[in-house]
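ok trying this again, last paste got cut off
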Amino acid sequence: MNKQLNKAVTARFSGEDYTRLQTEAERRGCTVADVIRSSWTHYQEQQQLQQLLIKMEQRQRKVQFEMLCTTLDLAAEERKQALSALHEKGVKF
């Protein structure tokens, strides 16, 4: 039996923020807790998207590096030197 255990979380908000949460909950037709849960889910999704974008950027850099090395007809040792120089400058692959 896989039973999920729900945990309560208490958070303090300024009066202004709480009023905004209440307004949003009323607009959506749900509770303040539902708005907060939704916000947390949205935050997690954004973090996952950010990680995917970082990985895509790294793959793109690698492809661009390989294309540039091929275009310049760099020898294996020259590629290593170029890659080393990029690493020293903080470029991640």
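PB: full thing came through this time. The mean pLDDT is 93.
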